[in-house]
Write a structure and sequence with these properties.
By secondary structure, the protein is α+β, with helices and mostly antiparallel strands. The protein has two domains: 182 residues, no CATH class; 133 residues, no CATH class. Helices cover 27% and strands 13% of the residues. The strands form three sheets. It has a four-stranded antiparallel beta sheet with strand order 4-5-3-6, with no helix packed on it. Strands 8-9-7-10 form a four-stranded antiparallel beta sheet, with no helix packed on it. Helix 5 packs across helix 6. It starts with 34 loop residues before the first strand and ends in a 6-residue tail after the last strand.
């Protein structure tokens, strides 16, 4: 087979597979009413909990969503990589590459050649992808949801024939969330108030440690926080003879005394959404199951006494949560 005659060349197949008939007329086009772009939450769960699955959820399918495909989290259609399925297929279809010495095929070189030649012949870029849901393996991916609008019927048929010829079972071939997309998904939900249900342990059946850490607080403003601390008896001069309070020592004393008196551990946290600042955090979503009503009211009266407005107080994703 040559790339010049790629439109006429046969599609990948096993020795037992028969090519589908192409004589039937094309059915009339169906006009799809697209839905608006969503926040990618289903049943109060984030995208990662929707996948792997098949078929692809409608909210991730650009054929059903009114959006730029780049607005969608990347999900991949493929199966867990199995060398004993992929490499024999490559060799049987003329993509094998032998080692420099001997008659044995090189698995790594054969895989590289398969990817290169498959793209040249069919316009499909095979990939090895890290995804959520496979701890110790990669997915052998055929395309992503961001490719779906430009894939032709012939290319989709090539993919299905290739999957069959490689020996993958239908239940192996699913839609998987790209490893880089967990952080992207949660980050685009925040900052926000109230906290999204999918991050609130009161609404999610889970160990709180399974949830990404998000903090309730506001951008840190030293003049507000330190003035509040001094006014409430938490100021620390360091040297009693000094006239001025030391901001750093006052902050440390505020944190210590606030925890002793009220059981709330104030923090200064790096969060997503504040490029050149830190967040003054009162508590995280992982604390919500043990925070009392009295403590919540105390937090509200404290940030108001500091001079923060209610709209300043948001839920922010911890910088440590770039998963």
């Amino acid at each position: 087979m040559s790339s010049a005659s790629s439109e006429q060349e046969s599609e990948p197949a096993s020795s037992t597979s028969a090519p589908p008939s192409e004589g039937a007329p094309n059915p009339p086009k169906v006009v799809i009413a697209k839905e608006p772009l969503t926040e990618f939450i289903v049943g109060d769960r984030i995208v990662r909990d929707m996948l792997p699955t098949r078929p692809i959820p409608r909210c991730l399918n650009p054929n059903f969503v009114e959006c730029d495909v780049k607005q969608l989290p990347v999900v991949w259609f493929g199966a867990p990589y199995e060398e004993d399925k992929v490499i024999p297929f490559a060799i049987a279809n003329g993509f094998g590459v032998k080692r420099s010495q001997g008659d044995m095929y090189s698995a790594s070189l054969t895989l590289v050649n398969l990817i290169e030649q498959f793209y040249k012949r069919f316009g499909i870029y095979l990939r090895m992808q890290e995804v959520w849901g496979l701890k110790d393996n990669l997915v052998f991916a055929f395309y992503s949801n961001r490719d779906m609008r430009k894939l032709t019927k012939r290319q989709l048929r090539v993919v299905l024939r290739t999957i069959e010829a490689m020996g993958f079972d239908d239940e192996d071939v699913l839609w998987w969330l790209d490893r880089d997309e967990e952080e992207w998904t949660v980050r685009n939900m925040l900052p926000a108030r109230p906290i999204p249900h999918c991050l609130n342990p009161h609404y999610v059946e889970c160990d709180v440690k399974q949830l990404p850490i998000v903090w309730f607080g506001a951008p840190y403003e030293e003049d507000k926080v330190i003035s509040f601390a001094i006014a409430n008896g938490f100021g620390d001069k360091g040297d009693p003879n000094d006239e001025l309070y030391a901001a750093s020592l006052t902050w440390v004393n505020l944190v210590k005394q606030f925890y002793r008196r009220f059981g709330i551990y104030l923090r200064i946290e790096e969060v997503w959404g504040l490029k050149d600042n830190l967040g003054l955090a009162f508590y995280s979503n992982r604390d919500m199951l043990k925070i009392t009503k009295r403590q919540r009211l105390l937090v509200q009266s404290t940030y108001r006494a500091m001079g923060y407005e209610d709209e300043d107080m948001q839920w922010w994703l911890s910088r440590d949560e770039e998963l």
